[in-house]
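Replying to the earlier thread about multi-chain prediction with a worked example.

Input:
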Amino acid sequence: MKYTRTVQAAAIASVAAMALAACGGGSGNDAEAVASASLNADTKVEISFAGWSLKSTPEFQTLVDAFNKEHPNVTVNIHEYSADDYDTQLTTDLSGGTAPEVFPIKNLQKYYSYAIDSNGGLADLTSVADAYKSDKNIDISQYNIDGKYYALPYRQDSWVLFYNKTMFEKAGVAIPDGTWTWDDYMKAAEELKQKLPAAGYDANSVFPTYHHNWQSVFQSFTTGQSAATVDGAKKNFLSGDYSYMKDMYNNVFLKAQDEGLTVDYNTSTSNKVQYQAQFGTEKAAMLPMGTWYAATLVSQQKSGDANKFEWGMAPIPQSSTVKSDDGKPITFADPTGLAISGAATGDKLAAAKEFVQWASGEGGAKALAAIATTPAYFSDSVVSTYFGVDGMANDDQSKKAWQEHDTRPENYVDKKTNDIQAALKIMNSTIMTKTGSVDDAIAKANADIAALK
Amino acid sequence: MTSVTATPSPVAVKGAGSPSADIPFNKQPVSPLRIVGTVVGYVCMIALAIFMVLPFVWMFLSAVKPNNEVYMVPIQWFPSVWHWENYLTIWTKAEMGLWTGNTIFFAICVTFLQVFTGSFAAYGFSKIKFAGRNVLFLIYIATMAVPWQSYMVPQYKMLAAMGIANTRWSIILLQAFGAFGVFMMKQFYDTIPDELSEAARLDGLSEWGIYRRIVLPLSGPSIAALAIITFTNTWNDYMGPLIYLRKNQLWTIQLGLKTFIGQYSADYAMIMTGSVLSVLPILVVFLIGQKQFVEGIATSGMKG
Amino acid sequence: MTEVASKPVASPAKKPKGGELTTNAIGRRNLRNGLLFIAPNFIGFLFLVLGPVLSLFYIAFSKWSAFGMPKFNGLENWTRLLGDDTFKHSFWQTIYYALVHIPLTLVIAFGLAVILNSKLKGKAFFRTIAFFPYITSIVAAAQVWSMLFDPNAGVINQFIRLFTGGEDGWAPGWLSTTEWAMPAVIIVATWREVGYFMILLLAGLQTIPHELYEAAEVDGANGWQRFWKITVPCMRPTLFFVMVTLTIGSFKILDLTLVMTNGGPGDSTYVLAQYVYQQAFQQGNFGYSGAVSLVLFFLCMIVTIIQFVYNNAKEK
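Result:
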């Protein structure tokens, strides 16, 4: 019968598809190939570089322009990706062997998969990392997988407490002094709740603080502050027992929404509340948020999208029991890194290597700081460039909060990270929407993670 | 809930007045009961219509709001300042013109290919009795049952290896040969009595002749429906362009509007402006297409 | 029209027409003509759709992170499925969604199509309005509906409280409760898709010859009888198409739940397609994700084949 032939043809086509599938992926640059690649200043080289939402994210163009000044022979073409679906695009790119030479690793959640599962999709950058290992101005340790590095950070935001100085002063409440624990934070919020209406703020729509609806807000401080060292925190994260999160849910996050200190989680998710609008239009006096928000706030105050008020950054409130070994406040945030495609060779590889090394170092950091983007390299001149930006808060506490912290990752790099985050996401949604008790939700997450292989 | 369950009520109301009011060519004397029924029916339809367009109205109003007012607690319907200029700035601030051009190009190519090859293949499946027809047809339907996310990557690898990824061809090829059009047209051709084509065959008309002279003239509404739906789906497709296109010059509106979403923030007012503009061409196509839905097209030469 | 689908090969072959054309010759001619008509679409379909789809049948039995070649691992993905609570949960959520959404959408869409195919004044206007939800940005739709669904201030609950005892009366919590989140999603999905299926059904209604109704009227059939004796049988091919695409679409529901609830609260609207996407693109388990989508595939195919067989039986 003819259709059997058709089915055969289809089968052949599918085999062909699978065979084609095999030729994707990188050739797998080993450490030596990267180490020995060197850029000749006279050769003209063109490399491609992935970035997202270029109009609203000027950092990519800024990096390229600044790099170009120092290396006029290298042309860097930016390919525009989606900020939302970057990882979906990068996965297909790496799979199909069409990835650009240099691309960002947006956070640490998929870093392990890109680095290890892709089997040579990412070049081994250990030799480049060596230059920064003992440099006090940059922390590259979060990219370390068994002594090897497949990406280097060029941005290292961290979470701080933004506060509206004007609102605090009008209400007559003391601003954060840099030593706050979560209890102090809650007390201040309660005091604000009482005093803000008298200061002329609408009691129905203005809140003392705003807890945005991201999973990390409710979990990553807790995990980061659960141990004195980053290794201890990582151990807790991978332990499979999340009862250590219970107190923070009960005493801070659930309490805050029960007492009306913040927009509650359900409203926040179903109305897609924008934290920029909450804080920028003075609907919240405090906002725990990543340092990236500073740049947005500066530009929105200039454009009129945000009200004009005095603001500052304070260290994020701390646990009252656990202190960091190095004495700095413990906070969290994933670095944003740059990786090189395993398929890059020759001059392209050399140029890509030069670009990544430069972007992670002081050169890239200064260019980023000048547009109020938090870089990964914190030398004194970078700090003064950043706080020299017009409209930036520049009191000493803000500088200190921005610069000095013990930053733990949001996603601890491990092969189980993805699965754990997925289970914790459901747990968080259950707790914060109050569709299940804290105990039950934690027990379910524990069970789900125990069921993983 | 109220809006949706209210839908059948016009039927019920009309049914009460005159049980056969819904059937065409029904001529009965007008009774007072029927007039009341009609009025109530219209009121329900209009109430329903309001529910249908409410989100569109919100979209339209949000398009002219300051960005921070788009999502507010509690929701705010009208802007504090009307930013009508958003409709102009989107053309200069973003490459809206370019994206629109690309989207029109893709939508027209895909619609043409889908309708053309689909109606052709549908004729083969519906009117020619060849061996293996049912199995082949079921295979077509079966591919629709597989979620695209799960074979997206192998498909991408194949097109990337052929050098088609990141070109206009990728979107056109990707969308044009889905099973949807064949399935839909085949089912519509099945409603055309076989006696017609059998008789023509006995008269010595070739298969092409039967398709061209008998089947095609009868398929106006179904081709219009397929064209509207293919055009709309291609126009609004986001995942396809997302996976395949990395050059801004090739972008579609849906992909382009995503540039207003940054890593931590978004320009929602501009997105809404773009979305409102993006609906207009679909409306035009819909209005042209629905002209085909005229009663009585399926009468010629048939006796049931 | 009727024997076409059920008896594909045999019927024309049994009565050879004319002297010179043998059974075989007719079969060969039909095959050649059939394939000629199908070819332009089939060639593209074979390489661009069928090939990649078939590769899934291998991927589902292997370990694959989307990079390099899938590694065959036998039934490992499938035994894991059996013990996977998240999978089971999302499976039942999907069934729940489909079981309610399919009949609801079908009945309303059919009703609307019949009304808008009658001599109603302004039907062109209403047809256009009915299609609006389908072309409204899904983000805008989700936003407005969550406002309508607001447990306290929402219009819907205010209306419900008119019947349940005023201000303090009972009303569902909709998107903020695990029990009512799925019904809310179903309502919005129905609202969104009714116009779309209405267009398809309308096109089907238009192909019914008026002579049939006239003849029935002469025979004295009333409206109800004409609906069941003429409209429904003549619409059967269209209804089959609508049922199958509606079923498949319901089992594959994803975009709406992503935008409206992202699977929450908790995991109350977490459906299979989201699990497929999550396992593949977020967890990097393309093999396991492939197994889940095959479950989805078999689910769709069982329902489709039942409809196919029923449809063919009904037609004969």
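Strands of chain C lie at 62-63, 71-72.

Feel free to reuse this layout for your own posts.
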